[in-house]
């Protein structure tokens, strides 16, 4: 498996995988070095940890050929697995369901904004339309488990108007995380001239309040840390 990093952080084992089927211009993961790690090594790392939760993220975990054996092994070891994905492989997500606690699916913009999603993913129009269809299928599948919707808030694409359109798609999700763009310098690359955290924390809070209309729990993540909003 192509692994960027294995670590223990934020109270969980974290496995960050390399490789992605998108070319998002602000993404750091597609530029990070990786090493080949065997299935056995990854399982041993997680199993030896006292932390119960294992988070699989990075670029795109569903591209790893040994993902399902990894999930089976983690499940057998009694771990609670969270799988993050861009949603382009609903077939893999469906196969993963018996072995995971929940999913984290990223939504980049309203799904009716084909042009915006093209800009955010670096994909062609044809590929973007196909991606939107696949993501909608993944969302339906993911709602069978615990689901967090993860949104990178880039103001040109996610704002008070567009978030309401996003919420129409994700109603039924358990949680939404709104991440303030450029608030982690090791997580984002400058995009559209943004080199500082944006939008403001106050604007992020306003988006969070709107999200609470459709989602039970909302987490804000950014320059002021982490804040949980609940109904």
UniProtKB/TrEMBL annotation:
Its cofactor is [4Fe-4S] cluster. The keyword Ribosomal protein does not apply. SUPFAM superfamilies: Radical SAM enzymes. InterPro entries: Aldolase_TIM (IPR013785), Organic_radical-activating (IPR034457), rSAM (IPR007197), rSAM_sf (IPR058240). This is Pyruvate-formate lyase-activating enzyme. The keyword Iron applies. PROSITE patterns: RADICAL_SAM (PS51918). Residues 7-224 form the Radical SAM core domain. CDD domains: Radical_SAM. It comes from the Archaea. It comes from Methanomethylovorans hollandica (strain DSM 15978 / NBRC 107637 / DMS1). Keywords: 4Fe-4S, Iron, Iron-sulfur, Lyase, Metal-binding, Pyruvate, S-adenosyl-L-methionine. One of its GO terms (molecular function) is 4 iron, 4 sulfur cluster binding.
């Amino acid at each position: 498996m192509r692994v960027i990093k294995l670590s223990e952080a934020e109270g969980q084992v974290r496995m960050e995988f390399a490789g992605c089927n998108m070319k998002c211009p602000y993404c750091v993961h597609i530029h990070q070095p990786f090493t080949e790690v065997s299935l056995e090594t990854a399982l041993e790392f997680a199993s030896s940890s006292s932390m119960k939760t294992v988070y699989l993220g990075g670029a795109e975990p569903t591209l790893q050929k040994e993902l399902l054996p990894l999930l089976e092994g983690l499940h057998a070891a009694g771990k609670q697995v969270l799988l993050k994905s861009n949603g382009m492989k609903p077939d893999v997500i469906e196969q993963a369901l018996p072995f995971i606690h929940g999913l984290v699916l990223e939504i980049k913009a309203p799904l009716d904004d084909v042009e915006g999603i093209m800009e955010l993913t670096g994909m062609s129009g044809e590929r973007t339309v196909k991606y939107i269809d696949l993501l909608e299928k993944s969302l339906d599948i993911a709602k069978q488990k615990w689901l967090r919707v993860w949104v990178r808030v880039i103001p040109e694409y996610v704002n008070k108007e567009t978030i309401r359109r996003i919420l129409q798609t994700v109603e039924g999700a358990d949680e939404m995380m709104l991440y303030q763009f450029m608030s982690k310098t090791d997580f984002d690359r400058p995009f559209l001239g943004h080199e500082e955290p944006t939008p403001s924390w106050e604007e992020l809070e306003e988006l969070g309040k709107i999200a609470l209309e459709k989602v039970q729990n909302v987490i804000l993540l950014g320059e002021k840390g982490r804040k949980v909003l609940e109904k």
